[in-house]
Amino acid sequence: MTEVIEDEFENILSIQNKCTRLNLNENIYGTFAEIGAGQETVRHFFRARNPKGTIAKTLSAYDKDFSDAIYGLDPHNRYVTEFRLKSMLKYETGLIEDRISRVKHPEKLFFSYANTVATIDWAKKYKGHGWMGIRFQRKPKQEYSEIILHVQLHENSAAHQQISLGIMGVNLIYAAFYQSDNPTEIMHRLYDHLDSDKIEIDSINFNGPVFEHVDNRLMSLHLVKEGITDAVMFAEDGNNILPANALYKKNILTLRGSFRPVTNLNLDMFRTARRLFLDEETVNKDNTVIIFEMTLNNLKDEGGIDEKDFLDRADLLCASGHTVMISNFQEYYKVVEYFSQHTKSQLGLVLGVDNLQDIFNEKYYRDLSGGILEAFGKLFFKKLKVYLYPILDEETGEVINSKNLKVHPRLKELYKFFIDNHRVIDIEDYDKEALKINPRRVHEMILERDEKWEEMVPDLTANMIKEKNMFRKRKSATSEKS
């Protein structure tokens, strides 16, 4: 058999049946390397029929010195890292290639599966997390493809976490060989016989010839859209990055928007707020990350999410060198709570006056027992400052900032408290021309082919939109036929 066909089984196979099917395939052959939690994945293959058909070698280089001797040193002297996982995968597939003759076994499909995991500690202070991945071939002698993911472990015992890891490991190997024609399906199949509240995937990347047409940013979007995780991030190269690594002990400044497209208004908000943020005494520029955030609501248009529209926005942000976060945090206090899991350093939110008005709208906090007071306690309890960008009242021409913003009389004292304590900082050196820009109108002008929109966006953005024909409405099937 030169190529593994797509799985067409009607029902979800049991874990034992998945292992049996893999073991009975005479051409699938590989190594299992599992560090940290134990050999929780490979044991399923040993318990199924014909394990010798699949298992070339299994090891657990649990001792750090022994692990370093095999796979080399991690640059940061850590073990539960993506770098360590990739080193394991590459090393093990290299050994298979060296030791198994292609002349004798021309149809073999080699793979290496690996994980490096830290389960919950005895004090239950750290819940546990880990990296797992597979490097594999779908055709003999093909360049290797990879699926690499990071998981957060939410169960309250190491034994239960190990069971969940083992199940997901089997699901991953099976999906690589029998379901990899559809990466979205893979993400669903990773949860066969698992609940997402037990083990959370917060980063996943697909690479190699099997996935040459896969955009990992769409895979990030899918994780959030399906409720697998609350937030994902990707870097300017378009690859998903682990939020915990990007945010760990960092000062974080966040600008939320639709970015459809990035306008001169967005750019001015970013530049002016960054200047104020970096002037804070507690903020070190070299230890600061700036996040451009889009929520699922930002991405929805007429009830759904258009993937091309999302990629257009992502392309523009990535081309400008920005780190992007997609989240399901509609309320700002949830964003702050999320960041506070990863850092105790200074946090900053860049808000327009209209966004601040929304924050002071009590209707958004009806699901909280403490209402708006509970939300504000969560929002401002940590080291948070709001950098407030003014808006222009189109009817009166008045510039509205924190000093003349009107809030509900019942909330005036609460509002005054945060103003007086310098938790809300007015941006004063704003661009008066940028203030006149209405981002929604810019998008409408692009659709209407009104060239004046080009004056309202950065040059790089304008050039990319024109060259790649971004944000254009797709023709209906009827119009295409006519």
Q: How does this model look, in words?
A:
The structure is a single chain. By secondary structure, the protein is α/β, with parallel strands linked by helices. It folds into 2 domains: 15-214, CinA-like (Maf protein), CATH 3.90.950; 245-468, HUPs (Rossmann fold, 3-Layer(aba) Sandwich). Helices cover 37% and strands 20% of the residues. It has helices spanning 15-24, 42-47, 64-71, 82-99, 158-178, 183-189, 216-225, 243-247, 264-278, 296-299, 307-319, 332-340, 353-359, 371-380, 412-420, 439-447, 459-468, 477-481; strands at residues 28-35, 55-59, 109-118, 129-136, 145-153, 199-207, 231-234, 240-241, 251-256, 288-295, 300-301, 304-305, 323-327, 347-352, 384-389, 391-392, 399-400, 424-426. The strands form 4 sheets. Strands 8-7-13-10-9-14-15-18 form an 8-stranded mixed sheet, with helices on both faces. A 6-stranded mixed sheet has the order 2-1-3-4-5-6, with helices on both faces. Strand 4 and strand 5 form a beta hairpin. Helix 12 packs across helix 14. The chain is elongated. Mean pLDDT is 90; it is low at 1-10 and 474-482.
